[in-house]
Write a structure and sequence with these properties.
This protein has 864 residues and is α+β, with helices and mostly antiparallel strands. It has four domains: 315 residues, D-amino Acid Aminotransferase, Chain A, domain 1, CATH 3.30.470.30; 86 residues, no CATH class; 234 residues, 3-Layer(aba) Sandwich (Rossmann fold); 178 residues, 2',3'-cyclic nucleotide 3'-phosphodiesterase fold. The strands form five sheets. It has a six-stranded antiparallel beta sheet, with helices on both faces. The chain has a five-stranded mixed beta sheet with strand order 5-14-13-6-12. The protein has a five-stranded mixed beta sheet with strand order 8-7-9-10-11. One of its GO terms (molecular function) is GTP-dependent polyribonucleotide 5'-hydroxyl-kinase activity. Keywords: Ligase, tRNA processing. Its EC number is 6.5.1.3.
Length: 864
């Protein structure tokens, strides 16, 4: 089993007992020539990881094929790839190394597997503008299909054994209970391909060892993990698209060599085409973007493969614009926005309808701008009502593509075409009136958000693209910032037709103030809202926003990450608790944004609305890329006190967080120095914040079992919903301070996990809903480290799962709700424990099974 190890073992050998083959391995690796530049590159990464652990971290694994060999995975901070100059000694994304002793007994770093260098969109960095590409690259330009899956690396561990990894890990997910990791599924497909080609793993290992190559493939398997586009049966498996040298410098084989290798070893070749000039690449990709397909299929985009030249092949731009030396392999990408944004909307509205009920009124109006989406919503509501069972796996990422394909097939039917005509006749929802015209007069762009969604980043990009006015509330340091902010917006509207009122505007009173300001103009200025609505569980929104605040570092006037006390997370919670949903009447146009979207997709969504409603010209990919670069490089003009650092965590920190939310748009935090100086209080308990919509999970389960439940059982649930007593911030209590010192070891395990800058995600399954006349709970089983965890999966996460006592596992649950405030939530623990001991021995206790309800969450110290 591949699992992180600490402390580091001696090179090659694990443990004190050395098996007989260890000596052979040592002799083998002693004979390997390690390039000094490669060794020094890894040394530089080691030094940087110690000096700046937020920039670079590594995790050590046992190689599944030979457990006595340890392989280290290096992971760079994704956010920092865009910094110029780069803070990293390499731009590699996916790098696995091994410490070996050479013939003289010195430890050297061997690169075992190497992914591509980070490649950027057109215009995203200075060396990927069309002009710069003409200057420092040369033909051929090979355009390969941007595969719709997850990356897999295949390399030679030894001349007879292979190493198969995902981008940053290998082997089973730590602490997993049955769920396969990306690396495991990739290895399973590798064996299928080799068998079909009449080849063996040993033969492939020998070839990769001799060539010193890493085979780079895309795992495309909808039965394992669905992405945006469907994968046909004949295209399911590993799509080979690269053969990289296992060296620090990025060198990859030409596409004909890769395609021949794919055919020889049974992989699926990656579709490609070759062009001779950058203008041809530009014209070709623009035409494909217009058509929306290539060779009869929708696609995500192209990766363009070329190489760096010196002197420049054309133009006056110096080759030094590129950070790569002459002769280096060089990639850039051209990504298409559609139909991805629309398909993503369909996925999200389906999840919303499954959780809130199959009614179009439950979908945010901003997502109904497109006739296709309106039609989809009407259709899927009918499908949910007709047969909800066909959506059983939807929230686990299963059946998303099949649902979309059913809709598209229905859309082509007589019934679908008739409904489509009707949908096109219905005016789009645009807020106050159906005949709103934002192309005349003034416009205020009004974000509706919480900290960390990316509203300022989008605002900076829009300002760069269109020259809009941009007023930031966070730039105002006065005690009463709100009136000054409104005054500044009004002043900016005198010189700009469009002004971005950059503030969270999460409260109705903030939005009313902007509407009042708009009335000062003749005709009144219109309001276009960019609404980051919360269709996701609040814990998911909280995690995403918290991670972004950590990633951006000090690029904010006052709200900085507090890595010790986590008080920035308390600030986010205060916003989430107080946020008031945007109503149609509060804006003239509502554009629904997606908290989960990466920056480039969020910008594409916002720009699409600007083009549609304000009549602006659609920027080309290069200008979009340049806007992304400007937004990522943004630095605030001023910085106040570190709002989230006030008082650390605990009582004083939480008070500061609440005050910060109360006066969130002011740069100066309100907490007094006296309060800030208080020592932070420890948490009352540690729990896993469950990212789940309990009402959306429990409601359908009870509805499906209503015929087998007495009326009082159903009434309890109905009362919980009616009285709004269903937990909005559900959690799984792991250990309480009242159980100390008895459970001190478990307390320390939780504390260690919570202390990580980006704690790992855990996954678990909700198995039953159990309730009495006083309280309702959901039982928790199969706790593991999440297979697709974006956080830091290291020894603390593994130790947490492996050392969780059985008696603790038996009591794990989520309290769904209590009859009234006089019922202590702790009663749920006793209810679950007793019910698990003997489900038949407790009259007046009801239970309903939950099917395939998997939930994720992070461990956090909680106070209430």
């Amino acid at each position: 089993m591949a699992s992180p190890k600490s402390p580091s073992p001696p090179p090659v050998v694990a443990g004190e007992q050395q098996p007989a083959h260890i000596e052979e391995l040592q002799q083998l690796f002693a004979s390997v020539t390690i390039d000094q530049d490669d060794h020094e590159l890894i040394e530089a990464l080691k030094t940087l990881s110690k000096k700046a652990p937020k920039l670079v971290k590594s995790t050590e694994y046992q190689a599944p094929a030979i457990p006595s060999i340890f392989v280290r995975s290096w992971k760079m901070n994704e956010f920092k790839y865009y910094d110029i100059p780069s803070p990293f000694p390499t731009l590699a994304r996916g790098l696995f190394t091994q410490d070996v002793k050479n013939a003289s007994g010195k430890t050297k770093h061997r690169i075992v597997a190497r992914g591509y260098d980070k490649f950027f969109n057109i215009g995203e960095v200075p060396w990927t503008t069309w002009a710069a590409l003409e200057s420092h690259t040369a033909p051929p330009y090979t355009l390969t299909l941007k595969s719709n899956g997850c990356i897999i690396f295949i390399a030679a561990l030894t001349p007879t054994k292979l190493l198969v990894t995902s981008k940053h890990s290998l082997g089973p997910s730590p602490g997993s209970s049955g769920a396969k990791s990306h690396a495991e599924v990739g290895e399973r497909w590798l064996r299928k391909h080799l068998a079909a080609a009449g080849k063996t793993e040993e033969q492939l290992a020998q070839t990769l060892w001799e060539k010193n190559w890493t085979a780079v493939a895309e795992l495309c398997d909808d039965s394992f993990e669905e992405h945006v586009l469907p994968i046909s049966a004949e295209k399911t498996g590993l799509h080979l698209h690269g053969l990289n040298a296992c060296t620090g410098a990025f060198q990859t084989q030409p596409q004909p060599v890769v395609d021949a290798f794919a055919r020889e070893w049974g992989f699926i070749p990656t579709a490609s085409t070759v062009l001779n000039t950058i203008p041809e690449v530009k014209a070709f990709t623009e035409e494909i973007a217009r058509l929306g397909e290539w060779n009869g299929e929708a696609l995500e985009g192209f990766v363009v493969r070329t190489h760096v030249t010196v002197p420049p092949t054309r133009g006056e731009k110096p080759a030094s614009l590129s950070p790569y030396p002459a002769g280096s392999s060089f990639f850039f990408k051209v990504k298409f926005d559609e139909p991805y944004l629309m398909y993503r909307d369909w996925r999200e509205v389906t999840r919303t309808l499954l959780g809130r009920g199959p009614s179009p009124g439950n979908v945010p109006k901003g997502k109904l701008r497109r006739p296709e989406t309106k039609l989809y919503v009407e259709w899927v509501c009918g499908e949910i009502k007709r047969d909800r069972s066909q959506f059983e796996g939807f929230n686990k990422g299963k059946g998303i593509i099949a649902t979309r394909e059913r809709f598209l097939k229905w859309k082509e039917s007589h019934e679908g075409k008739k409904a489509e005509v009707g949908a096109e006749k219905v005016p789009e929802e645009t807020g106050l009136a159906q005949d709103v015209d934002l192309m005349k007069g003034k416009v205020i762009i009004m974000p509706v958000a919480v900290p960390g969604v990316g509203k300022t980043t989008i605002a900076v990009a829009l300002q760069h693209l269109f020259g809009f006015g941009h007023i930031q509330s966070d730039d105002i340091s006065a005690k009463k910032a709100a009136p000054i902010f409104i005054k500044n917006v009004v002043q900016a509207l005198k010189t700009h037709d469009v002004v971005i009122a950059d503030k969270n505007n999460h409260l109705k009173q903030h939005r009313d103030q902007l509407r009042e300001a708009a009335q000062k103009f003749s005709p009144p200025a219109r309001l276009l809202a960019l609404d980051w609505s919360f269709d996701l569980p609040l814990s998911t929104v909280h995690r995403i926003c918290g991670d972004r605040i950590v990633a951006r570092g000090d690029k904010h006037q006052s709200l900085h990450a507090d890595l010790s006390g986590k008080s920035h997370e308390d600030v986010i919670w205060q916003f989430l608790k107080r946020a008031e949903e945007l109503q149609d009447s509060e804006a003239d146009v509502v554009v629904s944004m997606d908290v989960e979207e990466p920056l480039e997709d969020a910008l594409a969504r916002a720009v699409g609305a600007i083009v549609k409603y304000l009549g602006k010209e659609q920027p080309d990919p290069e200008r979009m890329g340049q806007a992304l670069a400007v937004a990522r490089a943004y630095e605030p003009r001023s910085r106040g006190k570190r709002r989230a650092d006030i008082g650390g965590g605990g009582g004083a920190g939480r008070k500061a967080a609440k005050d910060s939310a109360d006066k969130a748009e002011q740069a100066q935090p309100p907490a007094s120095s006296k309060k800030a100086g208080k020592a932070k209080s420890p948490p009352r308990y540690y729990g896993i914040l469950a990212e789940v919509d309990l009402q959306g999970v429990v409601g359908p389960a009870i509805e499906g079992a209503v015929g087998n439940l007495p009326s009082e059982a159903r009434k309890f649930w109905d009362d919980l919903v009616r009285e709004e007593r269903v937990q909005k911030r559900p959690h799984v209590t792991v250990v309480h301070s009242k159980s100390l010192p008895k459970e001190g070891e478990l307390w320390e395990l939780c504390r260690a996990v919570d202390a990580l800058p980006r704690p790992p995600l855990f996954s678990f399954r909700l198995e039953h809903v159990v309730w009495s006349e006083r309280i309702m709970a959901a039982t928790v089983v199969d706790l593991a480290v999440a297979a697709d965890d974006p956080g830091e999966v290291d020894k603390e996460a593994v130790q947490f799962v492996l050392h969780l006592p059985d008696e603790v596992k038996q009591r794990l649950h989520i309290t769904v709700g209590t009859r009234d405030k006089n019922v202590p939530p702790v009663e749920a623990r006793d209810l679950v424990t007793e019910w698990k001991r003997d489900a038949t021995a407790h009259p007046g206790v009801w239970a309903v099974p939950l099917k395939d309800v998997w939930v994720k969450g992070r461990v956090k110290g909680l106070h209430n």
